[in-house]
Amino acid sequence: MFTSKKLSASHKDLIHDVSYDFYGRRLATCSSDQTVQVWDLDSDEQWKPTAQWKSHSGSVWRVTWAHPEFGQVLATCSFDRTVAIWEEQVNERKTGQSSSETHWVLKASLVDSRTSVNDVKFAPRHLGLMLATCSSDGKLRIYEAPDVMNLSQWPLMHVLSCKIGTSCLSWNPSRAHPPMIIIGTDDPSQAATTHIQIFEFSGDPKKWINIHSIVGVVFEPVHDIAFAPNLGRTHHILAIASKDVDIIHLVPEGTDSSGHTKLEVRTPAQLDHKGSQVWRVEWNVTGTILATAADDGCIRLHKANYQGTWQCISSFHGDGSVSTPAPIPPLAGTPSATSSATALSAMGNSHLWRELGDL
Predict the structure, then answer these.
(1) Rounded to an integer, what distance in angstroms lies between the CA atom of residue 110 and that of residue 232?
(2) According to its UniProt record, where is this protein located (predicted)?
(3) Residue 357 main-chain phi, psi, to 5 deg
(4) Ordered DSSP codes for 70-106
(5) CA-to-CA distance for 127 and 25, rounded, in angstroms?
(6) CA separation (Å) from 257 to 199, 201, 215?
(7) I need a surface site. Which of 9, 43, 106, 328 has the fewest CB within 10 A?
(8) pTM of the model
(9) Is 10 exposed, middle or buried (0-12, 13-18, 19+ CB in 10 A)?
């Protein structure tokens, strides 16, 4: 049984992104009003705003949490062409009795992009404290903090040319495969063959290689993209947000003569959103439920049955109501779903799932 709660954010403009922390007990939002707001779940299971500050001089497109092993750290990216790294600091104070207060401090500002930075993501924990950014100048940039105790230093480790303006990225969370990043573009002038590119890290030499472009699958601008967590699967699952949502399986088929992974692309499902543009996709920690958000104002949860048929299992509407569509009869070989807001991180309260997924 899914329920919803409505939060009254104090943003004065559009909210572009919502991000839960690893345990699902904190969330951050960012907006065109140039601010970031942080919320905490209290002992009564109520969300309380605990901080808000101006983070950029332009619209803030994305906000993301680092793994808590590295502290309470946020990264944001903006139309002002920068990426900001923020760290929460706690100050002890006495006002009759012992108490504390927190505030967020700007630790670093990454200014390498010449155009809007459209997405920023921290790497999976096992890769260390790294982050990737993509921007409208067609560059995928990868940074690393060499000293996790000094977050003011983020040397630029790799700059990859995508030859297209990029809109979104996702790290492959699998520990059993080489590091992999996928990028998408929302440039409507680009050919369908260049909407999605996949990069893999090669240990010898130590550099990122463009190993695959997904061709003939997505024909519309890509707004968001997400690897599903991989708990023992031999293949990777992707969700791609565009006019609809495409579910893609990437099946490793050995390596080529250069030692790079060869991938077979399979498209088991497309989730029809009845004309609504899909802006965000996110998986739960086990990679079994997909949340989508589109411009019709609804968040929908989707799940595949044992035959691989996808269906909408719940819908969250802008007025706070929740509906559960009638089950779709399983039809072998017939991928189907009905689905369809802007900012999304609907998988946040899965505390045990998040812990399980990191084991």
Answers:
(1) 36
(2) Lysosome; Nucleus envelope
(3) -65, -15
(4) G-SEEEEEETTS-EEEEEEEEEEEESSSEEEEEEEEE
(5) 24
(6) 17, 16, 22
(7) 43
(8) 0.85
(9) exposed
Strand partners, 328: none
- The pLDDT value recorded for residue 163 is 82
pLDDT at 189: 67
Return the half-sphere exposure (C-beta side, CA atoms, 13 A cut-off) of residue 35.
Answer: 13
Phi, psi torsion values for 26, nearest 5 degrees: -135, 150
Spatial distance between the Cα atoms of 78 and 118, rounded to a whole number of angstroms: 7
pLDDT > 50? residue 137? yes
Determine how many CB atoms are found less than 10 A away from the CB of residue 221.
18
E strand or H helix that includes residue 356: helix 351-357
Distance (Å, rounded) from C-alpha 272 to C-alpha 275?
Answer: 8
Task: Identify whether the C-beta of residue 204 lies closer than 8 Å to the C-beta of residue 227.
Answer: no
- Which band of pLDDT confidence, cut at 50, 70 and 90, is reported for residue 332? very low
Residue with tokens 């049955």: 305
DSSP annotation of 12 reads S
227 vs 162 pLDDT, higher one: 227
Quick one: residue 243, left, alpha or beta (phi over 0 = left, psi -120 to 50 = alpha)? alpha
Distances from the Cα of 12 to the Cα of 34, 201, 217, angstroms: 9, 41, 38
> How many other C-beta atoms can be found within 10 angstroms of the C-beta atom of residue 301?
20
Q: Are strands 35-41 and 47-54 parallel, antiparallel or unpaired?
A: antiparallel
Give exposure, 116-154, as e/b (b: 16+ Cβ within 10 Å).
Answer: bbbbbbbbbbeeebbbbbbbbbbbbbbbbbeeeeebeeb
Residue (of 202, 113, 236) closest to 166 by Cα position:
113
- How much is the average pLDDT of 88-109? 76
Gap between the Cα atoms of 57 and 80, Å rounded: 6
> What is the C-alpha separation between 264 and 193, in angstroms, rounded?
15
d(CA 354, CA 352): 5
DSSP code for 355: H
